[in-house]
Q: What sequence folds into this?
């Protein structure tokens, strides 16, 4: 006989006479009930001569346990359920199940049937199951032989740690202000450190969560600053050892070099790549490099995980000497020349390279010329290039020892200072914000990016002789330990406010001071306009406020220069047609002045002499004379007069005139346009004086007198040539 899973002992009995075999049971042998016997569950008639079987199967040991005590086991007491997910609970083997707790808290269509051992949980809650068998006594918890309970809680979706960083996209400040930076790390389960990166100064340090940031002068001038926060969520192994270099001598090795002890760790040898420029792309754990073999410059890659070398492209017309990978913008920068170099000076160019196709995109020429040294560029050739993500710029060194920065978008080059000559590579450690260079013998140089000066020298621990390039490489698994975020600080500076340099005005001039583009203005006198007009000496200032509330001011000093003094005389004046040579003499003139004369119809017509003599034509008339006096400040005074050349005393007068207002012969005047200096007196026929004038050119208009014959007398005056004369004139009115 054997014990079966239903708590019955099965046995067989043989009736040899009747020729039958019966299968019977002893019931509830492990319960508190008194077992009973069922002699024959069924019988089998095997007949005469047939073989009878009298064995039963072997059942597992657990069926000997009391009742169903261990049959219900949901597993962990607490589990988590995410929205949209479900959990199937199994109450185990039994004849009858009872479900409880929150099993009936959901929609009725989800309620469990007590005839099933399974229940699907779709919402958080506490769930209970109870099971009984055919021999149950109900002595267990809640009248069950076996029960279990499970608590289902809503799951919490854990964000990737790097998504927890949330710096503002931009921060606006006024020039001269500092920025309070805040790194909210409260949501990080743990982190090992942090570092801020930027071109300015962090107070007290760049490794605290809430530093003050002081923008650099360059950032203020540019109007913006890029600041990066890096949070280290786990230690990065191999401090100082994440620099990869290439040595061309012997086995052509790629190796890690350590900035702490100079140790060398070869990761690949006999590559045959002959690289002179390389950069590490973090996202695919791959090192990219460019060879400079004269016959076949080429781009290839090495996967640091598998060691696989992949040729990408060849360049029949280019040579390359330096490069680096920008993992922030996913760009490979390289510096080279656009034709094969046979020893002549050729201009270098900054390129970006498509790492998939090898296609070159020209960023710009660098105005730096180099000759080829096969694996290096000589002269002003750039052999070291490193991308700095904190400043978004490229650092570069030349064979002659120049230390440069290059704008990666425009290829604009700025000279920072001098550094170690003949460095073969540069690399920027953006974890600790350090720039390192390497010499041909493997010696490492820590370089100050503000000056190019050497901070530290680390000799190579192993002999090297032909290092050609260097880059910074953090393996993919380590780079995932760094979370970073960026913010742009917009600096509202005073560049737009410029009253100009101090100025001088000449007497009589005005200057308009202008400060356009601001919200409000306050000039030194309290006026609030956008412009201010002045013609006086003094110091002028304006304070302006822009739309962000930033206040700026500027000052200008204005000096008004007096006009130069001077006068002159002309002799003889007036003069007649018999003497037209006139001398001009300066009087009351200041020293240090220049003079420019102009004479109408004179000979000469212009002169810079102090006291010129000029010959005018022997024609009566007025001739204009102009004198421009200029001082050292460029201020001028202009004196304008006329000289008079009169007739020689010969005067002819008409004997009749008709003052009727028709514009023809309305006045009694001499026929000469410039008759000279005379007194004209008119008498009536009884000898009475009716008119007198010293302006002979104006003459007499009849003065309302009737038509008649009148007597006139001309008398010379003031040295006028000619004699007294007299005559008659008839006034005729219509």
A:
């Amino acid at each position: 006989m054997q014990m079966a899973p239903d708590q019955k002992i099965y046995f067989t009995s043989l009736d040899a006479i009747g020729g039958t075999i019966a299968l019977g049971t002893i019931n509830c042998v492990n319960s508190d009930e008194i077992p009973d016997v069922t002699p024959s569950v069924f019988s089998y008639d095997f007949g005469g001569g047939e073989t009878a079987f009298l064995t039963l199967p072997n059942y597992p040991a657990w069926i000997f346990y009391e009742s169903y005590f261990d049959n219900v086991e949901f597993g962990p007491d607490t589990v988590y359920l995410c929205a949209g997910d479900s959990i199937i609970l199994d109450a185990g083997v039994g004849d009858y199940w009872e479900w409880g707790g929150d099993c009936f808290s959901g929609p009725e269509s989800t309620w469990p049937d007590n005839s099933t051992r399974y229940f699907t949980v779709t919402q958080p809650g506490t769930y209970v199951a109870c099971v009984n068998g055919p021999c149950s006594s109900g002595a267990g918890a809640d009248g069950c032989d076996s029960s279990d309970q499970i608590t289902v809680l809503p799951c919490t979706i854990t964000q990737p740690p790097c998504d927890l960083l949330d710096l503002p996209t931009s921060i606006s400040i006024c020039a001269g202000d500092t920025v309070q930076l805040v790194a909210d790390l409260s949501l990080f389960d743990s982190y090992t450190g942090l570092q801020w990166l930027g071109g300015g100064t962090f107070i007290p340090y760049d490794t605290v969560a809430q530093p003050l940031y002081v923008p650099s002068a360059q950032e203020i001038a540019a109007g913006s600053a890029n600041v990066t926060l890096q949070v280290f969520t786990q230690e990065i192994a191999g401090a100082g050892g994440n620099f990869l270099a290439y040595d061309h001598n012997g086995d052509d090795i790629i190796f890690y070099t350590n900035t702490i002890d100079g140790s060398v760790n070869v990761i690949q040898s006999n590559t045959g790549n002959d690289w002179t420029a390389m950069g590490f792309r973090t996202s695919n754990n791959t090192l990219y490099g460019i060879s400079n073999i004269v016959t076949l410059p080429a781009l290839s890659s090495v996967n640091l995980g598998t060691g696989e070398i992949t040729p990408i492209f060849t360049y029949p017309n280019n040579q390359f000497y330096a490069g680096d990978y920008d993992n922030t913008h996913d760009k490979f920068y390289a510096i080279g020349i656009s034709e094969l170099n046979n020893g002549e000076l050729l201009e270098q160019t900054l390129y970006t390279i498509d790492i998939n196709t090898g296609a070159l995109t020209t960023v710009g020429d660098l105005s730096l010329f180099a000759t080829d040294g096969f694996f290096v560029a000589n002269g002003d050739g750039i052999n070291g290039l490193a991308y700095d993500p904190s400043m978004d710029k490229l650092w570069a060194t030349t064979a002659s020892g120049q230390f440069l920065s290059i704008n990666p978008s425009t290829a604009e080059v700025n000279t920072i200072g001098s550094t170690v000559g003949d460095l073969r590579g540069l690399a920027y450690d953006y974890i600790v914000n350090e720039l390192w260079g390497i010499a041909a013998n493997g010696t490492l140089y820590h370089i100050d990016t503000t000056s190019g000066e050497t901070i530290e020298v680390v000799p190579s621990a192993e002999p090297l002789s032909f290092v050609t390039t260097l880059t910074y490489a953090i393996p993919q698994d380590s780079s995932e330990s760094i979370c970073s975020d960026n913010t742009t600080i917009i600096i509202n500076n005073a560049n737009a406010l410029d009253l100009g340099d101090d100025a001088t005005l000449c007497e009589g001039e005005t200057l308009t001071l202008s400060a356009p583009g601001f919200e409000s203005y306050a000039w030194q006198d309290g006026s609030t306009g956008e412009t201010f007009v002045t013609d006086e000496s003094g110091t002028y200032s304006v304070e302006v406020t822009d739309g962000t509330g930033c206040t700026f001011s500027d000052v200008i000093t204005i000096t008004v220069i007096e006009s130069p003094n001077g006068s002159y005389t002309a002799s003889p004046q007036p003069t007649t047609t018999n003497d037209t040579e006139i001398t001009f003499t300066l009087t009351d003139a200041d020293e240090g002045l220049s003079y420019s004369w102009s004479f109408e119809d004179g000979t000469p017509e212009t002169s810079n002499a102090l006291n010129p003599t000029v010959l005018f034509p022997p024609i009566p008339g007025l001739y204009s004379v102009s004198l421009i006096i200029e001082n050292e400040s460029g201020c001028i005074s202009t004196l304008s007069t006329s000289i008079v050349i009169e007739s020689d005393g010969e005067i002819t007068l008409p004997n009749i005139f008709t003052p009727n207002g028709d514009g023809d012969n309305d006045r009694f005047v001499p026929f000469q346009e410039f008759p000279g200096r005379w007194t004209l007196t008119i008498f009536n026929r009884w000898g009475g004086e009716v008119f007198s004038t010293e302006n002979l050119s104006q003459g007499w208009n009849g003065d309302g007198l009737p038509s008649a014959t009148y007597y006139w007398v001309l008398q010379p005056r003031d040295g006028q040539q000619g004699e007294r004369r007299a005559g008659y004139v008839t006034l005729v009115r219509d």
